């Protein structure tokens, strides 16, 4: 489908999705979210793609849900249409690793979208925040939950109650992002992570993602049990035999994703 609000390109085995609504700082309107969901699903289904990078512009990853689009919506309309429902959460259904590469503003739904990705790499220009309180609302796409789990209660409470933004250095210190890089290197560094993932065994990558996600969605005991089951099941793959044989033989493994 031809996209109007995102750009897509592939770099090797990495699918790159760029939010592209510069006049609105990539505000996440319905059309943009629908296009993003479609592009994510397409890359997930494409065997040539091993990892996905979602990014925005230099000025904004995304400045949140589209305030102008939602300002006159009524409760029955948002409730019945499941605003912030399936359309916003497609990224959670993607089996391949999804990397958020954030430069500039990641606010409200933009911060929430980044946090729904598997990891966030930030440019030194990045600014994260949940400023919904300034609009008389609260985060609605998981921000109060994912930010709190990522950075802890006190900081999350301060940010969500006051709308204070956090710069890239603080985001790294607070474990919201895995790494901060110069803005000019952001895409290259994000793609490099994707390429590294692409060089590994796809079943182990998918199970590693599932295991880490279990840490967010279950108790410690259940999470450890999930990890154990996934770990043991990898002994059924040819890639486990290849990976370990290659180590013992002091050569590079040739993974075949089976
Ligand atoms: N929705 C709609 N339009 C937006 C927008 C948003 N979230 N954020 C920015 N824009 C638009 C502005 O209205 C402006 O458009 P016009 O030129 O037509 O006036 C354009 O983008 C550029 O923005 P600014 O002129 O405001 O740029 P700035 O550099 O002065 O300020 C900013 C940048 C601090 C990010 C400011 O734009 C801002 O505060 N934006 C809103 C951030 C926000 O409140 N996000 C939360 C939204 S609610 C939400 O996301 C709910 C949820 O949890 C799902």
Low-confidence stretches: none
Described by strand count, sense and barrel closure, the largest sheet is: 6 strands, mixed
Distance between the termini: 32 Å
Numbering strands along the chain, what is their spatial order in the largest sheet? 1-2-3-5-7-10
Ligand names: acetoacetyl-coenzyme A
Would you tell me the structural class of the helices and strands? Answer: alpha/beta
CATH fold title of the largest domain: 2-enoyl-CoA Hydratase, Chain A, domain 1
CATH architecture of the largest domain: Alpha-Beta Complex
CATH 4th-level superfamily of the largest domain: 2-enoyl-CoA Hydratase, Chain A, domain 1
Care to count the β-strands? 10
Percent of residues in beta strands? 15-25%
CATH class of the largest domain: Alpha Beta
- Counted up, domains total 2
Residue share in helices?
Answer: 40-55%
Q: How would you state the average pLDDT, rounded?
A: 97
Using only CA atoms, what is the Rg?
A: 19 Å
Order of helices and strands: EEHEEHHHEEHEEHHEHEHHHH
InterPro entries: ClpP/crotonase-like_dom_sf, Enoyl-CoA_hyd/isom_CS, Enoyl-CoA_hydra/iso, Enoyl-CoA_hydra_C
GO biological process, one term: fatty acid beta-oxidation
EC number: 4.2.1.17
Family: Belongs to the enoyl-CoA hydratase/isomerase family.
């Amino acid at each position: 489908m031809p996209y109007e609000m995102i750009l897509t390109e592939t770099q090797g085995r990495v699918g790159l999705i760029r939010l592209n609504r510069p006049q609105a700082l990539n505000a996440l309107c319905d059309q943009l979210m629908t296009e993003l969901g479609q592009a994510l699903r397409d890359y997930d289904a494409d065997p040539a793609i091993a990892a996905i990078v979602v990014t925005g512009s230099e000025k904004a990853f995304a400045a949140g849900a589209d305030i102008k689009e939602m300002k006159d919506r009524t409760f029955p309309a948002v409730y019945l249409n499941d605003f912030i429902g399936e359309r916003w959460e497609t990224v959670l259904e993607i089996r391949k690793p999804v990397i958020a590469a954030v430069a500039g503003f990641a606010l409200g739904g933009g911060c929430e979208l980044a946090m729904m990705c598997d990891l966030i790499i930030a440019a030194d220009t990045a600014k994260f925040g949940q400023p919904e309180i300034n609009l008389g609302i609260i985060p609605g796409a998981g921000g109060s939950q994912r930010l709190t789990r990522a950075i802890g209660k006190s900081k999350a409470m301060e940010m969500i109650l006051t709308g204070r933004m956090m710069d890239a250095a603080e985001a790294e210190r607070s474990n919201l992002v895995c790494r901060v890089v110069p803005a000019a290197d952001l895409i290259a560094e994000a793609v490099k992570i994707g390429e590294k993932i692409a060089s590994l065994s796809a079943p182990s990558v998918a199970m590693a993602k599932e295991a880490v996600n279990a840490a967010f969605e279950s108790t410690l005991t259940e999470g450890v049990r999930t990890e154990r089951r996934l770990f043991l099941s990898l002994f059924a793959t040819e890639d486990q035999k290849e990976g370990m044989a290659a180590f013992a033989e002091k050569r590079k493994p040739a993974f075949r994703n089976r």
